[in-house]
Amino acid sequence: MTTNHGANLFDLASKLGIKKSEILDFSSNINPFGASKKAKRSVIDNVDMVSIYPDPEYKELKGVISDYCNCKPYNILLGSGATELIAAFINTIDPKKALLVSPAYSEYEKELNKIGCNIVKYFAKKESEFKINVNDLKKEIKTRNYDLVIICNPNNPTGFAFNKDEIKELLSGTKTFFMIDETYIEFTDTKKYSSTHLIDEHENLFVIRGTSKFFSTPGIRLGYGLISNKMVQDNILKKLDLWNINIFATLMGEIMFKDHEYIDSTIIHMSEERKYLDNELRKIKGIKVYESHGNFILCEIKEDDMTSEKLYNILLKEGIVIRNCSSFEGLSDKFFRVCILKHEENELLIHEINKIIK
Known about the structure:
With 358 residues, this protein is of the alpha/beta class. Helices cover 39% and strands 16% of the residues. Strands 2-8-7-6-5-3-4 form a seven-stranded mixed sheet, with helices on both faces. A four-stranded antiparallel sheet has the order 9-10-13-12, covered by helices on one side. The chain has a two-stranded parallel sheet with strand order 1-11.
């Protein structure tokens, strides 16, 4: 099955006959406040560095990521986006049977299928508000003898998150590899939910992060993974190209990970707007809203004559794009997801949905 990764704004703008900048994209989960101004300035001021190779060891970049994640720099792997690292890790450990906590990002299943892995899906249920009992999941992992467990934390699209103690509980007493995708972790309390500090004591843990969503830099294709297992780390490195991170991604990364003013401001604004959007969506009687720890909110339409596809098409005519979640296995054509944008944009979304769903 194929799951699209947010809107293709270039294609939509052409079809709608409007400028790409005129589309309100509530589908892509990208920080609406843009990238760090200091990081962008660094690129502008150093544009002539296009004529030199990056440091093949990326010492400075790994140093700032190390400080940012509170991890050792020699446990950091860099990738051209998180997706490259997902593929490299799966190919390296070559699991025969994997447990995929679902609904989930389609690239996990895509990469597992490439190697002929037997995939078992552990679905979060709407009857439980898409929350997962850690003891039930641990029992499933221990009784079925999996080679790999994949968890997106917080989960996309449900917004559910395991805290770090629950992840530690899952890791205890097993040699099963765990891949924890923390693409959206920075939109919640990292001290409570992030697993990066568990790397040193658990060689079967691989934590992945990207910079596309929180740092609003999908165009530079910068991702990073953390693992202390040296054998796995060395084998992953063999699969990655030399200089796989370009000079401008390197320059931006060296600045934005230590731009604390930008980071703190993003956390404050996104938290405030998530609360606002959550509260306003809950006021609409025809919608059920699920608790989220990401920068997006999963909603279920309760009206019989309305589907997520219909809602998508109606809003699209107004230049507003939401995520129709019917393509996520485990969800139906009643589910849609919206990400958090700026306040006036969130207000407009609520206004338009109120006109459609009572």
